[in-house]
Design brief:
The complex is a heterodimer of chains A (81) and B (418).
Chain A: H1 3-17, H2 32-35, H3 39-53, H4 68-80
Chain B: E1 6-13, E2 17-20, H1 21-28, H2 32-38, E3 42-44, H3 52-65, H4 69-72, E4 75-81, H5 92-99, E5 107-111, H6 117-130, E6 138-145, H7 157-160, H8 163-166, E7 170-177, E8 183-194, E9 200-204, E10 207-210, H9 212-233, E11 245-248, H10 253-268, H11 272-282, H12 290-293, H13 300-311, E12 318-326, E13 330-338, H14 340-347, H15 351-356, E14 359-360, H16 363-370, E15 383-384, E16 403-409, E17 412-417
Helix pairs in contact in B: 3-5, 9-10, 10-11, 13-14
Classes of the chains: A mainly alpha (81), B alpha+beta (418).
């Protein structure tokens, strides 16, 4: 699964966790915080994405990405490791 | 069978003043749906003449007053647990010991590990008793913390964001002994999870810093890791089945909800409806006091325990699960048994009534306190406290049973009973 596919999964999880964003265009360069996703929702989205791609890593290892694209790249790198 | 040991008596003290958190959020222009997710209604605000010592002593005094002289004479250890220290060397426990007039053959010390400190203190006391080095001894463990937004840098309001409405103040005093009327600890039933992380910290005597996302992630990792370590030690432990109620460290209710949801998904792939129903029945009662005092740091998991005991009708012995997390970080999942007597003893402390008596600060009064002019900073030498900074907060019906800070002479804090 490549980084773009992982980004699609993240975006789908954002839409299902925060229904108000369902109709809004969301791209790799967007940050969840700027989209109005709060910290609890952000952790929910990351957990759901981990489940969807079958990756088991500590949450704290996923801290740092500034936008959806960077998060997808990090998850992609972790899933290859 | 292992010896009975645990909490004999417990009290929560929520200070002399509070603030309506919804009013604060409206005043700050914060997003209201997000505010609802905090699950906080009021927060205790420490007045300038309140400090971690006054909170600790005021929490403990009713427990000590209720003891017979021979029982009081068996208190052989006083542990204060805090991240709100007032000195780098001298521990709060010395002041607490003095103002409660406790025996001189006492071991006094302080524990620091962010919000985990209270559990570390309780476990120290429990293990002191289990070791039987002084049969029949009692220990006083007090978790006491305040947050002082008054001491932030100018213009920091925006940075505080949601930490300002959730940060509170309070102390929990626990008498730990071999007659555990409130909570009998399951000796040996615990699990730890710890690693180095820079999620929240107090880098200077009067400053706090943190990363909300990283802290939440560490809390979630720890909740799962500590429970898995618990189930490695305790045969047939089951998060869903083994505990009638759960009491978690509560920075704000929403974080507890997130951690519970995470665990229920990870362990059982539980659907959202089941998770919500389980949260409402096994965790929501524990929020009863936390939503009135805000985050009390080291005491928070015991504020949750007290809230549960206040609100749940316990008709038979029940095992409860406790989860404590302290930034930086260390965590522990442990358990104990409560009985109908636990609820009766806790309710006799009349904690809700004491919280109702707090002065409700207006936003104008709160902002006066925020200017911080009357606050005694860490390391202050020589000061007189202004007891009339918020005139309406000073009790008119004072009965001589509440401690407040009066002055600092040299570096020595002087307190008075009012």
């Amino acid at each position: 699964m490549d980084s773009d596919r992982i980004a699609e999964i993240i975006i789908a999880e954002i839409r299902s966790t925060v229904p108000e964003l369902e109709a809004q265009p969301i791209a790799r360069a967007d940050s969840m915080a700027d989209l109005g996703v709060d910290s609890i929702e952000r952790s929910e989205i990351i957990l759901a994405t981990l489940e969807a791609i079958g990756l088991k890593v500590p949450m704290v290892q996923l801290h740092g990405p500034r936008n959806i694209g960077e998060l997808a790249d990090l998850l992609h790198a972790k899933s290859k490791a | 069978m292992t010896r009975a040991v645990g909490i004999e008596a417990m009290n929560v003290y929520g200070g002399m003043a509070c603030l309506d958190v919804k009013e604060l959020c409206l005043h700050r222009g914060l997003d209201m749906p997000r505010f609802e997710n905090l699950l906080v209604q009021e927060k205790t605000v420490a007045l300038p003449y309140e400090d971690p010592v006054t909170f600790a002593v005021n929490a403990a005094r009713p427990l000590i007053d209720a003891l017979a002289p021979e029982e009081r004479a068996r208190i052989e250890m006083v542990v204060t647990c805090t991240e709100s220290g007032i000195d780098f060397g001298k521990s709060l426990s010395t002041y607490v010991h003095a103002h409660l007039d406790l025996p001189s053959n006492c071991r006094l010390f302080e524990i620091k590990q962010a919000c985990y400190s209270g559990t570390a203190g309780l476990q120290m006391a429990v293990n002191f008793l289990l070791a039987q080095t002084s049969p029949g001894a009692k220990a006083l463990v007090v978790a006491t913390d305040i947050s002082r937004f008054a001491l932030a840098d100018a213009g920091a309001v925006e940075e505080w964001a949601y930490s300002e409405p959730s940060s509170g103040a309070g102390a929990v005093a626990m008498l730990v002994s071999d007659t555990p009327h409130v909570l009998r600890i399951d000796a040996g039933a615990y699990g730890n999870h710890a690693f180095e992380v820079m999620d929240t910290c107090r880098p200077g005597p009067d400053t706090e810093a943190g990363d909300a996302d990283l802290s939440l992630m560490a809390y979630l990792d720890c909740c799962e890791g500590a429970f898995r370590d618990y189930s490695r030690r305790v045969e047939n432990a089951d998060f869903r089945e083994s505990f009638g109620q759960l009491c978690f460290h509560t920075p704000f209710g929403g974080m507890v909800k997130g951690a519970h949801r995470h665990l229920m998904r990870r362990l059982y792939k539980a659907p959202p409806k089941e998770i919500e129903a389980d949260f409402q029945s096994r965790l929501a009662p524990s929020l009863a006091f936390g939503k009135r005092v805000g985050n009390t740091a080291g005491g928070s998991v015991f504020v949750a325990l007290a809230g549960m005991l206040e609100t749940v009708d316990i008709d038979a012995p029940m095992r409860i699960g406790m989860f404590s997390y302290g930034s930086g970080c260390c965590s522990e999942f442990y358990s104990g048994v409560v009985t109908p007597e636990s609820g009766e003893r806790l309710r006799a402390m009349r904690i809700p009534q004491a919280l109702d008596r707090r002065h409700r600060l207006t936003i104008a009064e709160y902002e006066t306190l925020l200017r911080g002019e009357s606050v005694v900073r860490f390391g202050t030498k020589d000061a007189e406290l202004n007891h009339q900074i918020v005139p309406d907060a000073w009790p008119v019906d004072a009965a001589g049973d509440r401690l407040v800070l009066d002055a600092v002479v040299g570096y020595h804090r002087k307190y008075i009973w009012i």
